[in-house]
Write a structure and sequence with these properties.
about 80 residues, mainly alpha, 5 helices
């Protein structure tokens, strides 16, 4: 799907030197959709054309971290113990 929008010329002049505006808009949209729970991380990867490892770096650079609780840690620790690791 193709999506477009207009911004005032004065604003465009101020932000045009900050990189590819279309890419920045797509990334901002994808981040917001992920944060809102409307897309998954694999869908974000597809939308942005990123490999999984690249998506991790992208998300961290934008302050998005995985929720990882102590219960998650304990489950993983128990699983590793059962495997003898």
């Amino acid at each position: 799907m193709q999506v477009s929008f207009e911004i005032p010329d004065e604003l465009a002049v101020n932000i045009a030197g900050l990189g590819d505006l279309s890419r920045r808009a797509l990334e901002a949209f994808a981040l917001e959709e992920l944060r809102a729970g409307r897309i998954s991380e694999p869908q974000l990867c597809e939308m942005l054309g990123l490999a999984r490892i690249q998506a991790d770096g992208f998300l961290k650079s934008h302050g998005v971290y995985h929720d990882y609780s102590m219960a998650d840690f304990e489950r993983e620790r128990a699983a590793l113990k059962r495997l003898g690791l």
